């Protein structure tokens, strides 16, 4: 079970998830195929695609940072695991954590390596971990960098990210440095990640792959196939079997 909603913090999404136990019964009238549609089978790993964000996660009393990924991360949580988290968009996470995103790329870092142990313990033991995470992040909140908001918007829309530097009066090197700090990687990688997200969303909506490649901004269907496999680790058709 997964649920997400808008956090009171700007550009942040709160979410909860529970990994089903292996022996969870089917609902009345539900076939085994219906039970597994859109989700990995029990005991199978979950494939989490890069999304240009970082997450602050509580898992069964442990709190850690999931840094920005460059490729899909495959996880296999124990049955019954509970998660509560905040997902930070448009580069807002590093200001809260106190470290640049470039130090967290493709990593899972215990929060007590970044924050005082007492503060982390309070979150770990909280009756409502999402509320505790939100309150702690709110005390450390820094407003989003307007340039990074513009960069994320351009990358998400498939627009040339170089134009962001021109509009904001920055050199390409300055934009690269600020992007590394906020997102963990440069504008080109961010553009690739959001293009992948667009392609997967279009394919899940039932668009033919040839249409997906054109509408998402790939040169052709072969380019789409190469990029999806490089970043997701599996073909696009495999991603459509699960969410």
Description of the molecule:
This protein has 243 residues and is an alpha+beta fold. Helices cover 42% and strands 16% of the residues. The chain is built from eleven helices and eight strands. The strands form two sheets. It has a six-stranded antiparallel beta sheet. Strands 3-6 form a two-stranded antiparallel sheet. A hairpin with a 2-residue loop joins strand 4 (54-59) and strand 5. It is globular, with a radius of gyration of 19 Å.
Blueprint (SSEs and pairs):
Elements: E1 2-6, E2 12-18, H1 32-36, E3 46-48, E4 54-59, E5 62-66, E6 73-75, E7 82-88, H2 93-97, E8 108-110, H3 117-124, H4 129-139, H5 146-157, H6 162-168, H7 172-183, H8 187-204, H9 209-216, H10 221-232, H11 236-239
Antiparallel strand pairs: 1-2, 2-7, 3-6, 4-5, 4-7, 5-8
Helix pairs in contact: 3-4, 5-8, 8-9, 8-10
Highlighted features:
single chain, 243 residues, alpha+beta, two-stranded antiparallel ribbon, 16% strand
Radius of gyration using CA atoms only:
19 Å
N-to-C SSE series? Answer: EEHEEEEEHEHHHHHHHHH
Q: Give helix % range.
A: 40-55%
Instruction: Extract low-pLDDT stretches.
Output: 24-39
Taken as a percent bin, the fraction of beta residues is: 15-25%
Quote the distance from N terminus to C terminus. Answer: 12 Å
Report the sheet with the most strands, covering strand number, pairing sense and barrel closure: 6 strands, antiparallel
Number of helices: 11
* Assembly level: single chain
Q: What is the residue-mean pLDDT, rounded to a whole number?
A: 90
Shape: globular
Report the strand count. 8
């Amino acid at each position: 079970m997964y649920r997400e909603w808008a956090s009171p913090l700007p550009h942040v999404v709160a979410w909860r998830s529970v990994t089903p136990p292996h022996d969870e019964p089917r609902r009345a009238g539900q076939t085994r195929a219906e039970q597994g549609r859109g989700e990995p089978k029990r005991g199978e790993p979950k494939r989490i695609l890069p999304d240009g964000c970082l997450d602050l996660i509580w898992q069964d009393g442990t709190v850690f940072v999931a840094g920005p990924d460059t490729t899909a991360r495959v996880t296999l949580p124990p049955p019954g695991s509970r998660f509560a988290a905040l997902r930070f968009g448009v580069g807002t996470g590093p200001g809260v954590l106190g470290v640049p995103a470039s130090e967290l790329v493709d990593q899972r870092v215990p929060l007590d390596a970044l924050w005082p142990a007492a503060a982390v313990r309070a979150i770990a033991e909280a009756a409502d971990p999402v509320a505790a995470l939100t309150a702690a992040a709110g005390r450390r909140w820094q407003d989003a960098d307007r340039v990074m908001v513009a960069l994320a918007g351009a990358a998400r829309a498939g627009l040339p990210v170089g134009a962001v530097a021109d509009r904001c009066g920055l050199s390409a090197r300055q934009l690269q440095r600020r992007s590394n700090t906020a997102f963990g990687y440069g504008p080109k990688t961010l553009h690739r990640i959001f293009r992948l997200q667009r392609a997967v969303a279009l394919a899940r909506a039932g668009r033919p792959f040839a249409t997906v490649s054109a509408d998402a901004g790939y040169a052709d269907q072969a380019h789409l196939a190469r990029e999806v496999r490089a970043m997701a680790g599996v073909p696009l058709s495999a991603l459509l079997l699960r969410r």
